[in-house]
């Protein structure tokens, strides 16, 4: 048996526990009589993840739920296999469930055709047993995860509050970066800003993201991201994710009024 390394009471982060990278942060919630896992990672690391959980002396039969923060393949490619092997229920937002149950390779980032990128094994379709909505609660033994809908990076991204902890998915990272913004991915800048504002104002003390280190919530970091994304809404750089492009609007007005460009 391996000695458990708790990041916080009731929380083991499996990368830290194993001193091994699983590609994304995997949070095991230890409720005493049962446990749950927030994200499961990719197929190539699933054997190691399950072996580690077994060595930590968590009965595989006591898995309450395999929870998806969202439908990105790096987070949940192994969800279908884990569901079968652990005989556990899966949980995800309805929008994420649609992509996962369809095994949609583009929406799940398993495939980016324009860049010739493909994840080995693609995105296996996975049944989602529990559709998680804003305000739901996931009881894991003595612990409770409160479900937050935090779209923006993807339509179906969820965050989970447990006391003063917030499992924040790909909303924001310690360096102030945010999850990828991509129209094919379903990214939506106004929703992203709303989600970041909610995180900024939350009563959580610590953010536990899906990538990078966990960190004490800093409103200045969140506000910096909010300000940046607010500007992105009006920049051509972000294509169809933009709300408006002031330069193009002004140019159209000039064309209609016959105004020549200032050269």
Radius of gyration: 20 Å
Distance between the termini: 74 Å
Overall geometric form = elongated
Specify the CATH class: Alpha Beta
| Largest sheet: spatial strand order | 1-2-3-4-5-8
CATH architecture: 4-Layer Sandwich
* Count of DSSP-assigned helices: 8
CATH superfamily: Ribonuclease Z/Hydroxyacylglutathione hydrolase-like
Range of strand content: 15-25%
Report the uncertain regions.
none
Helix share of residues? 25-40%
Mean of all residue-level pLDDT scores: 96
Structural class: alpha/beta
Order of helices and strands: EHEEHEHHEHEEEEEEEHEEHH
By CATH, the topology is Metallo-beta-lactamase, Chain A
Number of beta-strand segments: 14
Instruction: Outline the biggest β-sheet.
Output: 6 strands, mixed
Explain how this protein is built.
The protein has helices at residues 14-18, 43-55, 73-76, 79-86, 94-102, 189-201, 219-232, 246-257; strands at residues 11-13, 27-30, 35-38, 63-67, 89-92, 111-112, 117-118, 130-131, 137-140, 143-149, 158-162, 165-169, 206-209, 215-216. It has a 6-stranded mixed sheet. The protein has a 6-stranded mixed sheet with strand order 9-10-11-12-13-14, with no helix packed on it. Strands 6-7 form a two-stranded antiparallel sheet. α6 packs antiparallel against α7 (219-232). 41% of the residues are buried. The protein starts with 10 loop residues before the first strand and ends in a 6-residue tail after the last helix. A hairpin with a 2-residue loop joins β9 and β10. With 263 residues, the protein is α/β, with parallel strands linked by helices. The radius of gyration is 20 Å and the shape is elongated. The chain is built from 8 helices and 14 strands. The mean pLDDT is 96. The chain has one domain (11-232): Ribonuclease Z/Hydroxyacylglutathione hydrolase-like (Metallo-beta-lactamase, Chain A), CATH 3.60.15. GO terms for molecular function: hydrolase activity. Keywords: Hydrolase.
């Amino acid at each position: 048996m391996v000695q458990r390394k708790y990041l916080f009471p009731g929380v083991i982060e499996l990368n830290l526990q194993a001193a091994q990278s699983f590609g994304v942060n995997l949070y095991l919630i230890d409720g005493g009589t049962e446990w749950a896992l927030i994200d499961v990672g990719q197929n190539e690391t699933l054997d190691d993840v399950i072996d580690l959980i077994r060595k930590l002396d968590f009965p595989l039969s006591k898995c309450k739920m395999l929870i998806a923060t969202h439908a990105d393949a790096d987070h949940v490619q192994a969800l279908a296999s884990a569901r079968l092997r652990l005989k556990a229920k899966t949980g995800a937002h309805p929008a994420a469930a649609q992509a996962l149950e369809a095994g949609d390779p583009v929406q799940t980032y398993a495939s980016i055709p324009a860049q010739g990128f493909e994840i080995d094994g693609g995105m296996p379709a996975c049944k989602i047993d529990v559709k998680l909505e804003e305000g739901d609660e996931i009881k894991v033994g003595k612990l409770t995860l409160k479900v937050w809908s935090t779209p923006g990076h993807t339509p179906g991204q969820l965050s989970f509050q447990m006391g003063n902890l917030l499992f924040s998915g790909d909303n924001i990272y310690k360096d102030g970066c945010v999850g990828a913004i991509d129209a094919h991915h379903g990214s939506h800048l106004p929703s992203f800003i709303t989600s970041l504002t909610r995180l900024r104002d939350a009563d959580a003390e610590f953010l536990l993201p899906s990538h990078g280190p966990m960190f004490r919530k800093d409103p200045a970091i969140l506000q910096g991201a909010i300000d940046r994304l607010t500007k992105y809404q009006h920049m051509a750089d972000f294509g169809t994710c933009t709300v408006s492009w002031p330069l193009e609007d002004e140019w159209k007005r000039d064309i209609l009024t016959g105004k020549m460009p200032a050269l």
